[in-house]
Amino acid sequence: MSEVTHEQVKLMLQLYEMRREEKLRKARSWFFSNFFVTNLEDMMKNFPMDSEMNANIRMVSSYWEMVASIVNRGLIDEDLFFENSGEQWVVWERLQPIAEEWRKVMKNPLIFKNLEEHCKRLDAWREKKAPGSTETMRERMKQMQMMSRHAKSAN
User: Fold this and answer.
1) Residue 130 gets which letter from DSSP?
2) Tell me, what DSSP letter sits at residue 77?
3) Contact 91, 99 (CB under 8 A)
4) In which band, very low, low, confident or very high, does the pLDDT at 2 lie, cut at 50, 70 and 90?
5) What was the pLDDT predicted at 50?
6) All structural domains of the chain with their residue ranges
7) What is the pLDDT of residues 38-55, one digit of tens each?
8) Is there a contact between 127 and 134 (Cβ–Cβ < 8 Å)?
9) Please, what is the end-to-end C-alpha distance for the chain in angstroms?
């Protein structure tokens, strides 16, 4: 295990504190309950650019893209970060189906690249520490999505 500095711990705690900010907390809550898309067209139709929902998507995705950039650069020890955070993985799992299409439309191959690379390493780290857990988490997410859709259609 690498040497973790006080500065890295302080930065990690600051990032956690940012997650507790009221607007970001509400955006995260909305994102995890409502953001299930399979293509960019559905995203734009269901969450138009001028909507609060789209603002929530941008807030959550940009926060985790920024954090991934910080960790990718080694400013926080990766083991320490992976031991204490997994939310970014769920965000990437939700964004992954539209990432390539979004990159092409925006003519920007860098969109979500930090988060993508970060989560690839997180997957490898998790599989080394807890083999099979990543696929189990994907299955649980599918179940939760189906339950959410069923609950919304019943209302």
Assistant:
1) S
2) -
3) no
4) low
5) 94
6) 6-154
7) 999 999 999 999 999 999
8) yes
9) 50
